[in-house]
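Methyltransferase domain-containing protein
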Amino acid sequence: MADVFGKALMDFQHGKYTEDIKTYSSLDEEDVIPIPYLFRDFDEMPKMEQMALQMAHGKVLDIGCGTGSHSLYLQDKGLDVTALDSSEGCISVCKERGIANTVKSPILEYSNDTFDTILLLMNGIGLAGTLDRLDVFLRHLASLLRPNGQILLDSSDIIYMFDQDEDGGYWIPDNGGYYGEVNFTMEYKGLKSEPFDWVYVDFNTLQNACLANHIHCELVMEGEHYDYLAKLTMEP
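Structure:
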């Protein structure tokens, strides 16, 4: 499978940036991922990401690390950080940017260590793919936590993307799935990725999934646009 995302990041890292990543989704929306934004430093990050990084402590696992911007900030603060991504290109960029500990692996195939803080930023919970895979995903993350460890994640309720009627209800397609499930394809310089599933989880749905798996779910912060930061911990 073409590492479209990784190639785009490698190009930027090596001074070959000429275009952004295009995304196509089952929401019938064409969008772009601006590559320079993925290389931002702490001051350029949204408040929610800044808050999560300030809450991180101990040994940290940064899942879906991308360019490693979050890992770099924490490493510079003296934390022991492991940057994990399934993209070869992402891991190469992280190494070139000076991140000491990197792992190339899908998260569900990783079980080599345990951590005090697990980060899933930029809607990292989306890696679960679909709502019916969320339980397995959460249980696996919980297995990587040390005693008193925490999972910090942000996500969005994408209900706002659907049409609203006069009484405030939303017109959601009745396709049998959860409305936050989206199928994406990425394109960069003529290369197209395989389609992949991504899930945006509203806070109530996340809370219910955590409850079913004996995980405590706390709302830390709400953003201005249906987004939120949550902290998950194991129930005693």
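Residues 46-178+202-234 form a domain with the Rossmann fold fold (CATH 3.40.50.150).
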